[in-house]
Specification:
This protein has two domains: about 120 residues, Arc Repressor Mutant, subunit A (Orthogonal Bundle); about 140 residues, Alpha Horseshoe (Serine Threonine Protein Phosphatase 5, Tetratricopeptide repeat). About 50% of the residues lie in helices and about 10% in strands. It has ten helices and seven strands. A four-stranded mixed sheet has the order 3-2-1-7. A hairpin with a 3-residue loop joins strand 5 and strand 6.
Length: about 290
């Protein structure tokens, strides 16, 4: 106790008190509410592909690192429980300290971009009117994979192969472990999109562009057997049996050298014992 009668904390409690003080926010600025906080961004966008950027009304918003990470988590998941966000972004802090730092960070984001984050009692969310580039790209890729998408459908007006490496790289300079599943999900969507569009182009007779997309899939993931099958099918449809056999041999060699396995029966059946197999039907989801 000091001369003013206040109790002074020492040891671990003193450290916790220091963390809480460092993350403190003036009362009333961001407090738990029954509903959500008011304030709606008129035009807000979050960019995560190729790098991080938040724009509000054509103005780039400058955010500290902790605020950038909070916005990124919410942009990827839209809404998450407070405790899960706090544990993800401040894993080495106590629960109380992490929650307090989360409270501070929400306040900092909304001070720079009013209304971008909506804070509830148990969960926090990115404002639903804010656009997110990852979400838009993922939706377009899912549209390409949709059962109603045909060669005449508007979804094919967007060429999956036109996505540059930067446009499909999720925060490439960040090393946060929580980004790994989201990067893999986006990568798999892109690969499936390449194959789906290549198959539709194959059926419509656009062999050149179909082969271009199929080879891009093989190049991105040489162990992806379904991509090799699309390449073989395109060569067979064109009547290029020698090239189909070369593509098959390449598939056999890669799988043997890298995994010590041989191609699946579905892949082997495309060439074994026949001059060409024009009735190739991709598996559901390819």
């Amino acid at each position: 106790m000091d001369n003013s009668g206040r109790h002074l904390l020492r040891g671990p409690l003193a450290s916790t008190q220091h963390q809480l003080t460092r993350c403190a926010v003036p009362l009333g600025r961001e407090r738990p509410m029954q509903g959500y906080t008011d304030g709606v961004p008129l035009r807000a966008s979050v960019r995560l592909l190729g790098g991080f950027e938040v724009m509000v009304e054509d103005r780039i918003v400058d955010l500290p690192v902790s605020a950038q990470r909070l916005v990124a988590v919410l942009a990827l998941h839209h809404s998450w429980p407070r405790s899960r966000i706090a544990g993800t972004l401040w894993p080495h802090s106590s629960e109380l300290s992490a929650l307090n730092c989360l409270r501070t960070t929400v306040w900092r984001v909304n001070r720079a971009a009013p209304g971008l984050i909506r804070s509830g009692v148990r969960a926090i969310e990115l404002h639903p009117k804010a656009s997110v580039d990852v979400t838009e790209v993922a939706e377009r890729l899912r549209a390409v994979l949709g059962p109603c998408c045909s060669s005449d459908d508007p979804c094919d007006a967007w060429d999956v192969g036109d996505l540059t490496t930067e446009e499909r790289s999720l925060l490439p300079e960040w090393d946060e472990c929580w980004l790994a599943p989201e990067r893999e999900r986006l990568h798999q969507l892109w690969l499936h999109g390449l194959e789906a569009q290549a198959n539709r182009l194959l059926k419509s007779g656009a062999f050149g562009r179909a082969l271009d997309l199929a080879l891009a899939s093989v190049d991105s993931d040489p162990l992806r057997e379904s991509a090799h099958r699309v390449v073989i099918a395109i060569h067979l449809a064109e009547g290029n049996i020698a090239q189909a056999r070369a593509a098959y041999s390449h598939c056999v060699r890669v799988l043997e050298e890298e995994l010590g396995v041989e191609p699946s029966p579905q892949t082997r059946a495309m060439l074994v014992g026949r001059r060409a197999n024009y009735s190739y039907t991709p598996e559901r989801g390819e």
